[in-house]
Amino acid sequence: MIMFGALGAVSAIPADRLLEQVDWRGMFFLLAATTAGTAILILLVAPERQRPPQGAATPLGLKTIFGNARFVRLAPLSATYIGSAWSMQGLWAAPCLGDVEDF
Fold first, then answer.
1. How many domains does the chain divide into?
2. Pair 99, 72 in one domain
3. 2 domain residue, yes or no
4. Do 5 and 85 contact (CB within 8 A), yes or no?
5. Is residue 1 part of a domain?
6. What distance in Å separates the CA atoms of residue 49 and residue 60, rounded to the nearest whole number?
7. I need a labelling partner for 89 at 20 to 30 A (CA). Which of 5, 19, 54, 81 fits?
8. Residues 35-68 pLDDT 10s
9. Taking Cα atoms as reference points, which of 37, 40, 14, 38 lies closest to residue 27?
10. Domain of 38?
11. Could you tell me which residues come within 8 angstroms of residue 65 by beta carbon, excluding any fewer than 6 positions away?
């Protein structure tokens, strides 16, 4: 999740350059077309997942995951790390909206 958030921050300058050529609707149309093209490519190229045979082990449920001792130990660390990163990324939003958009 952090990687995709940082990717959004990195793509701000190319998006700004694109907005010099088209309006925001055009940019979103281009992003939607790119997303649809990527989905079609995945549909055509990715191999079909094989179904497990009858009687195979069932997938883990949330009760099993949340009851796992390793998950219970790592979840607070992960939540702290992600929460800190998101709060740092969020610190620029208010000044940017105030300076750039006069909000």
1. 2
2. yes
3. no
4. yes
5. no
6. 18
7. 19
8. 999 999 999 999 887 877 776 666 778 888 888 8
9. 14
10. 10-48
11. 71
